[in-house]
């Protein structure tokens, strides 16, 4: 598919966010002028890119899926990466979204022309214009690799978990894993049996609780196919439980010690060495950082051929890595499990607003938006999974569908009212973020005594949503035009 010269609505990214929005738009306007550009070679976003061993969802799949596209084919209650990717490709085909996607097309720059009220968009496959641009590139899409002294001199193999090198055989190798977050807890147990020795570098321990995963039986799947309302009821019950959990986590109630007791019991069962248990016990309130779900991570760290280094990483030599106390560890391969860049999304460097500054320059290291979706100074730009929309307890798909409804309604208002440009007012954005930051002050993410990727360069929690997800949805049910400045394109003079 070739790029058109112009499109009304241009969506950047064909993951859960971008495809969900396109499906929502096409549901009510099948002939809508909407296009998705995707830098990868297929749809799926993070579930296309992350193919590391053991990659799986850490939210029950009954909830981590589109509400408008239930599936009775999931193999487990927590789905694995390959089937999530297959699911997304099927949804793209079934909804007609796939025909609106241009793959291998990376956004390079988008600039708002205030006089013409239009976006000029430069991509790796050419230039086009768009009335509306939606950045649906995800908060966890661009790997973060630390700038380690000496890394360029390392004689072995290096890669990030999000760009797994499947051509490289780890059998019999000495492997260093940098990071102990959500990705590491999934792939380390998978690669430990093959490697000669694993050295895992931990900066901060995390609370780990059991993963209540199980296979879905054939009878369950059959029931869901015959009676879709049963599956819908299951989704609703999982959602309700997660909302209750969110209330506990977000506001650090007296129930948090119960979760801590579960995590400590899990640690005692799986790790025999008391010194290793000490290294793996956090010194902050459970929930402050993302709780990890695993049944075999802790047990793997207790293996004789696995070493946990809690001194951090200081540098790299041609033959290995050096920890913070000066010990060198000889390794053949370094795998970075160092996460992503949610407070400094790369797409922000490509979007230039009305005054010519990029969104990254406008934010200056501290992202903020109105309802996580629009930004003053950037007309006709919508963000999905924007600032303060991340969750610690539930499914981001629920938040994305809430944003989709809001954006689709805004597009309907534009169409019905003949409006060419919307821009949220600075006052509305300021009021909104003042309230969000105030609500965050009482949450475990702000009060739990940890440092996390939720905090930006200004020390603000610009990542987390502070309360129940239904409150977010209720705020985004309708496009609130009163908080926006709207205008129409001036008529051009004709020359006889």
Automatic annotation (TrEMBL):
Q: What is its EC number?
A: 1.14.13.-
Would the keyword Transmembrane turn up in this protein's UniProt record? no
The record's section on InterPro entries has: FAD-bind_Monooxygenase_sf, FAD/NAD-bd_sf
- On whether Secreted is a keyword of this UniProt record, the answer is no
Its domain of life reads Bacteria
**What are the record keywords, sorted?**
Oxidoreductase
Under Gene Ontology molecular function, one entry of this record is: oxidoreductase activity
Q: Which Gene3D superfamilies match?
A: FAD/NAD(P)-binding domain
Under the heading PANTHER family, the entry gives:
FAD_NAD(P)-BINDING DOMAIN-CONTAINING PROTEIN-RELATED, L-ORNITHINE N(5)-MONOOXYGENASE-RELATED
Protein name (Swiss-Prot/TrEMBL): NAD(P)/FAD-dependent oxidoreductase
Organism name: Rhodococcus jostii
